[in-house]
Amino acid sequence: MQTDQQETLSRPDHIPAELVHDFNLYDIPGAAEDVQAAYAAIQQAAPDIFWTPHNGGHWVATRGEDIIAMQRDYHHFSHKHIVLPPMPEGTPRQIPLEMDPPEHARYRRPLMQALMPSIVAELESTVAAVAIEAIEKVLPRGECEFIEDFAKVLPIHVFLELVNLPIEDKHVLLPLAEDSVRGRDAETRLRAHRAMGGYLLDHVRARRDNPGEDLLSKLVNVDLGGQRISEEEAVAYATLVLFGGLDTVAGMIGFIARFLALNPDHRRQLVERIDDDAFLKQAIEELVRRHGLANTARVVAEDFDYKGISFRAGDRILPANLFVGMDDRLNDNPLVVDFNREKPVHAAFGNGPHACPGAVLARREIRIFLQEWLRRIPDFRIRPGTTPLLATGMVNGVLRLELVWP
């Protein structure tokens, strides 16, 4: 792990001293108890936009209005580098996330087509079967470690089937995904990306020689107007998609399960109305709003002023997604989960050209988790004497969650 001296940067001349705030996204006070509440406390205590010396030095936008604007304005806030601290110079870019339009659209299209609502609907029986099998396995025990026994089973089995990779390889792939999204330094993340690329190389070559109907085949044979993407780009693309598919939905399901274990009234509301599709859709949106997950940084593309702040080309900024759901200017009492909230406002899946292509699948998996779990285990809580292990970083997550039920 980097020393604090390596992580921090002296304040550049163009940044006013009053806009400097102590914020380290890998070490947020209070995050061990509630990650999103810890972010909300930062939001209330700091300027709307501030600069932190940690993780190479970068700006942070804390309010929904600004974050949504920055997510949509790729002309000023480029996706050229999306992680903090920055990856070493010369690191292959993460395709298509570290691309801006119009280049980005050509690479993103096959992923969008593969995860269209009609395609995702066809996966429903598979998702439900995986969920039921995982629940029935732990049900008689009256206890489980939820992350290993369920949250890392449902989305990962479904995703590995989508890309047609062996399910037994998850034991190799999951630790790499963990290092990629929550590694506290660039070296850890770079090792994970290289290891994943090494794992994928033979699979990529095989799908380029003999493409199938699976998602991986479509990604590694993207047509760029008569020319296929290079092998290096194909490996980078497959690496990014695998990391996303292996971690983010598992993290969201973990946060939701932890919330329901701690809030029996909310759990009972869901149990009573589990077959009410409109209510369940609204409840899922509210749970997603309250439990923001992924963060992607941006690079300022050119010198310009924004709301009285002078940004300089090359500045990095973190418009953290979860701040939107926590913003009391957009959501009344944002820390409170209200299944009757008229319009939950959040950016859990991003906005603009880079909005998450897997959002439809993620919502479907969350719905199936709630329906199948609550029908079988309507009453559960955190095992007495244990504390959920939460993590912050570029992707927040629940690393351990021990549950018990009658």
From TrEMBL:
Query: What keywords does the record list, in alphabetical order?
Result: Heme, Iron, Metal-binding, Monooxygenase, Oxidoreductase
Q: Which GO terms describe its molecular function?
A: heme binding; iron ion binding; monooxygenase activity; oxidoreductase activity, acting on paired donors, with incorporation or reduction of molecular oxygen
Among InterPro entries, the record links this protein to: Cyt_P450 (IPR001128), Cyt_P450_B (IPR002397), Cyt_P450_CS (IPR017972), Cyt_P450_sf (IPR036396)
What PROSITE patterns does this protein map onto?
CYTOCHROME_P450
Please indicate if the UniProt record lists Oxidoreductase as a keyword: yes
Q: Which residues form the signal peptide?
A: none
Q: What Gene3D superfamilies would the database entry show? A: Cytochrome P450
Which domain of life does the protein's organism represent?
Bacteria
Q: Does the keyword Heme apply?
A: yes
CDD domains per record: P450cam-like
Membrane-spanning segments: none
UniProt family annotation: Belongs to the cytochrome P450 family.
**Can you name this protein?**
Cytochrome P450
